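A reminder from the course coordinator: this example appears on the midterm review sheet, so study it carefully.

Given structure:
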């Protein structure tokens, strides 16, 4: 259809030209049409110098270099190089971190680290699977959810032999499925937050407020529009609006012109898979004895999921029992409890407060939930600072926080730090399970665009094999080096990348709330991909359900990024061409936050292990910041984590059935346990 519209523009011109000129017009049309959704961009600029006379911009100078292409290849090998300038007379190659300023200079050729050179294949929108590359405000995942709701309302019948939810296409929902939409979502154990037929969303307006405007003007108008459509727990934080949107309202919100994008607000706490021990391992007991410091006249705030609103039956103890047993003080200030509706949470905030109370028994304690989206999280940090917190600690990670730019939560952490608050954040439990690379054009086509070549050598590998056992999930977050619209406004992402999981027949498999194929241009440089293996896929020719799948990264449109990075959030990392890179990102990578890693308490010097042994799951840094909050290209090296604290310590209830040291109390593992103990000290 796009080619036909373009052809109409050339119609009168075509009729008025000579046969040779007509042929040239046809060739132009043909080339544009065969490119489909993909749009090539210039690789280099002649007569231009990037970031001249800027010592911080140049990484190194190599001479002699034979050509601009050789200079670009040198840049590809440098992680911190994103641009280059080549001097054709001196045969000198300048590798650069920055592009601006750009000045005219004869004899120089400048370009970008990554450039797609060989791709010419067609990617037509009509050929894409249902729900992929949705062009409304909804992410592809929410568009599929809206479609599923529409099928429910229609009472559609799933054809015999077709795959059940979450793999359905149009007409694939039976009447039995109608009553089990939420149950099926919960059964997949994926990164969704759907409760009481509401989904937790982040809404980015088309025209975000100007710098410094806190929810004024158009944000309040948009908030009211969404409240009228049933949005609950609405919270505004500058360029973001978060809340619980009725599933039935998704379709209406999709067409709002005042909305740039709507995506699921996905998060989890940083507890691990698997007190007095922590106090001893940090020698905090010696501080109390020698200096008589107990936290008196100090306020400590915790940000987590819930305090006393457990989601799943009965805990070993509740808050009142903890108070009666002197595991918590009686006067904890609850600024805002978490757990929308009756679903509740894990009460991890209460477990963190127990650990703080065990070390700083006279400190005044407060709690604010982060449940409800990044706007709730950011405003919770600010609310605790207004409450008078001297120290704040959190253990939450939102998947919609940028790797390479300080987003709303990171900016809130730095704001309160500059006000004099000590801010601590759990570093995360992703170990070094991250892949990063320049985008390399393989010359081969995937479902949505040109496939990335994972092989840095002369070979070509377009798929990373991944193992996903039946009943388990695989999940990763992909970012690339372009500023986010939700953070800085402006033009947003110039590229549209997709991260797709394929089966053995190279057919994409999609999870309802994280499909990996969202439109990105003019929005955020973000994809979240998740796949739950429910055992219904069996196409590899071997007996039993498939467990071997294949990951691909594809460039659908726009320039190739100079750096792309995905971080594993669940499942087993690929075995081939995996780079084992940094995994600390978002607000715990903020300038004003102290990221806290973890070491099991029994593996520290007070327990006769010197030096302490860091937990293998503890996340690693550094992840460099490449853009300022207003979208300017920078290079800010963030050396993280700054500190390490103990995990594996006892609480009265968290996590049930995990008494690893046989003390009669459950053990709390992960950087979620380490963070509050360091904050208490």
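Designed residues:
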């Amino acid at each position: 259809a796009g080619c036909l519209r373009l052809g109409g523009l050339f119609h009168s011109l075509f009729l008025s030209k000579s046969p040779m000129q007509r042929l040239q017009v046809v060739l132009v049309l043909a080339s544009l049409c065969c490119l489909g959704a993909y749009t090539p961009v210039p690789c280099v600029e002649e007569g231009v110098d990037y970031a001249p006379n800027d010592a911080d911009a140049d990484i190194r100078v190599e001479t002699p270099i034979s050509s601009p292409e050789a200079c670009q290849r040198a840049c590809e090998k440098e992680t911190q190089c994103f641009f280059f300038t080549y001097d054709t007379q001196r045969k000198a190659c300048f590798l650069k971190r920055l592009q601006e300023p750009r000045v005219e200079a004869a004899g120089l050729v400048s370009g970008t680290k990554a450039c797609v050179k060989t791709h010419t294949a067609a990617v037509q929108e009509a050929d894409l699977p249902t729900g992929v590359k949705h062009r409304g405000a909804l992410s592809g995942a929410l568009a599929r959810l809206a479609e599923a709701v529409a099928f429910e309302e229609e009472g559609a019948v799933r054809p015999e032999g077709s795959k059940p939810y979450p793999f359905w296409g149009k007409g694939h929902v039976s009447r039995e499925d109608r009553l089990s939409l939420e149950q099926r979502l919960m059964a997949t154990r994926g990164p969704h937050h759907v409760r009481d037929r509401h989904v937790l969303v982040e809404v980015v307006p088309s025209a975000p407020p100007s710098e410094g405007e806190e929810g004024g003007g158009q944000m309040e108008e948009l908030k009211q529009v969404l409240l009228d459509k049933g949005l609950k727990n609405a919270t505004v934080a500058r360029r973001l609006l978060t809340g619980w949107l009725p599933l039935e309202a998704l379709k209406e919100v999709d067409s709002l012109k005042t909305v740039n994008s709507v995506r699921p607000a996905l998060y989890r706490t940083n507890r691990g898979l698997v007190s007095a021990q922590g106090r001893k391992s940090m020698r905090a007991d010696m501080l109390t004895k020698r200096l008589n410091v107990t936290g008196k006249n100090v306020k400590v705030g915790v940000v987590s999921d819930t305090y006393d609103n457990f989601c799943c039956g009965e805990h070993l103890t509740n808050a009142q029992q903890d108070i009666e047993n002197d595991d918590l003080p009686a006067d904890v200030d609850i600024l805002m409890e978490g757990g929308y509706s009756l679903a509740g949470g894990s009460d991890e905030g209460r477990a963190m407060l127990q650990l703080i109370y065990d070390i700083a028994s006279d400190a005044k304690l407060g709690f604010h939930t982060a449940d409800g989206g990044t706007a709730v999280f950011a405003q919770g940090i600010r609310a605790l600072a207004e409450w008078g917190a001297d120290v704040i600690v959190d253990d939450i990670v939102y998947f919609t926080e940028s790797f390479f730019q300080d987003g709303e939560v990171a900016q809130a952490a730095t704001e309160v730090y500059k006000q004099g608050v000590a801010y601590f954040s759990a570093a995360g439990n992703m170990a070094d399970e991250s892949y990063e690379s320049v985008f390399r054009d393989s010359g081969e086509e995937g479902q949505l665009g040109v496939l990335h070549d994972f092989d840095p050598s002369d070979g070509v590998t377009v798929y990373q094999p991944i193992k996903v056992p039946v009943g388990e999930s695989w999940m990763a977050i992909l970012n690339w080096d372009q500023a986010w619209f939700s953070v800085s406004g402006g033009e947003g992402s110039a590229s549209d990348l997709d991260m797709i999981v394929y089966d053995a027949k190279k057919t994409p498999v999609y999870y309802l709330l994280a499909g990996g194929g969202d439109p990105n241009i003019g929005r955020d440089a973000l994809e979240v991909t998740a796949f739950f293996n429910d055992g219904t896929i069996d196409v590899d020719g071997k007996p039993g359900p498939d467990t071997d799948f294949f990951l691909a990264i594809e460039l659908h449109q726009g320039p190739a990024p100079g750096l792309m990075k995905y971080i594993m959030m669940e499942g087993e990392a690929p075995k081939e061409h995996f780079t084992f890179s940094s995994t600390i990102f978002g607000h715990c990578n903020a300038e004003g936050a102290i990221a806290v890693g973890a070491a099991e308490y029994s593996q520290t010097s007070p327990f006769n292990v010197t030096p302490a042994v860091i937990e293998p799951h503890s996340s690693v840094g550094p992840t460099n910041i490449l853009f300022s909050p207003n979208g300017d290209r920078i290079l800010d090296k963030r050396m993280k984590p700054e500190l390490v604290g103990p995990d594996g310590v006892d609480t009265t209830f968290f996590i049930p059935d995990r008494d690893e040291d046989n003390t009669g109390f459950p053990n709390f593992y992960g950087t979620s346990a380490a963070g509050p103990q360091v904050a208490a000290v």
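Residues 511 and 531 are 5 Å apart (CA to CA). The first strand starts at residue 44 and ends at 50.
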